[in-house]
Amino acid sequence: MVLQDLGRRINAAVTDLTRAPTLDEKAFDGMIKTISNALAEADVNIKLVANLRKTIKASVKFHELPPHANKKRIIQKAVFDALVDIVDPHQKEYVPKKGKSNVIMFVGLQGAGKTTTCTKLARWYQARGFKTCLVCADTFRAGAFDQLKQNATKAKIPYYGSLTQTDPVVVARDGVEKFKKERFEIIIVDTSGRHHQEDALFAEMVEIQTAVQPHQTIMVLDASIGQAAESQSRAFKETADFGAIIITKTDGAAAGGGAISAVAATHTPIVFIGTGEHLLDLEKFNPQSFVSKLLG
Ligand code: GDP
């Protein structure tokens, strides 16, 4: 189920209810059930769905509503707020400062979209007047440096990497040191992933983190991750303590409910979403506007 379908189903549930001949508590419960089913099918974590049910139910007290209350508005708002709550961890994201070197490190599994997203984010900051560069510390995946080089060249972003150095920690440290000396303001470090969570990956992440001391660590999650998102994001959080999430491939067939659930599992904000394979396919994420857009 794609994200738009989820939005349509939620909207339809609210509209059906408000058009029902008798807008009573039973019909309201039915609407909550329909919305919950749609969210569960979109892979939103089961516990979150249960919480949302309770929240919506508690925020509309049928017996206490004045006779002429606009029930439709009240119900719409309750649903909107409950959905915002799922994607809003109420945590502030790191805001890079002009005139100093801000180091941003990416983590995530192989194929999640790290390398692609690094360049997108670099371009995003570059377009906003930051002196921006990229460091490729992915020495694990053959071709990762070439891919980053090609992307960076296209976007006219300076980059650093090595074809001969196999230790990612050395590459990361050297690259960050060089760019700090050159007074770059945004230094984005791409790290390697693995196909699965594994000790070697986690050990490497910690070593790179210690070496480059990032101001922000961003976890990249593929929108299609499904219910595995919770345990995966928790495991990454425990090791790399990332402070932000980017969800990629939101243009694909997955509804992204799993990836969205990572927010609640780790109390970490989504900062951007990837909306395609191209350099400009990156959107700033904001909980309210995301839900507004979802509901059309
Ligand atoms: P990495 O192994 O984590 O570095 O992943 P890559 O950056 O190589 O991305 C893996 C694949 O996902 C590539 O084919 C990318 O073009 C694709 N990709 C990344 N982000 C997006 C996105 O937002 N939308 C789509 N459709 N594809 C994406």
TrEMBL record:
Residues 269-282 form the SRP54-type proteins GTP-binding domain. One of its GO terms (biological process) is SRP-dependent cotranslational protein targeting to membrane, translocation. It is found in: Cytoplasm; Endoplasmic reticulum. Fungal signal recognition particle consists of a 7S RNA molecule (scR1) and at least six protein subunits: srp72, srp68, srp54, sec65, srp21 and srp14. The keyword Endoplasmic reticulum applies. The NG domain, also named G domain, is a special guanosine triphosphatase (GTPase) domain, which binds GTP and forms a guanosine 5'-triphosphate (GTP)-dependent complex with a homologous NG domain in the SRP receptor subunit srp101. The two NG domains undergo cooperative rearrangements upon their assembly, which culminate in the reciprocal activation of the GTPase activity of one another. SRP receptor compaction upon binding with cargo-loaded SRP and GTPase rearrangement drive SRP-mediated cotranslational protein translocation into the ER. The chain holds residues 1 to 296 of 515 of the full protein. Keywords: Cytoplasm, Endoplasmic reticulum, GTP-binding, Hydrolase, Nucleotide-binding, Ribonucleoprotein, RNA-binding, Signal recognition particle. Belongs to the GTP-binding SRP family. SRP54 subfamily. Its main location: cytoplasm. The gene is SRP54_1. One of its GO terms (cellular component) is endoplasmic reticulum. This is Signal recognition particle 54 kDa protein. The lineage of its organism: Eukaryota, Fungi, Dikarya, Ascomycota, Pezizomycotina. It catalyses: GTP + H2O = GDP + phosphate + H(+). Signal-recognition-particle (SRP) assembly has a crucial role in targeting secretory proteins to the rough endoplasmic reticulum (ER) membrane. SRP is required for the cotranslational protein translocation for ER import and preferentially recognizes strongly hydrophobic signal sequences. It is involved in targeting the nascent chain-ribosome (RNC) complex to the ER and is proposed to participate in the arrest of nascent chain elongation during membrane targeting. SRP54 binds to the signal sequence of presecretory protein when they emerge from the ribosomes.
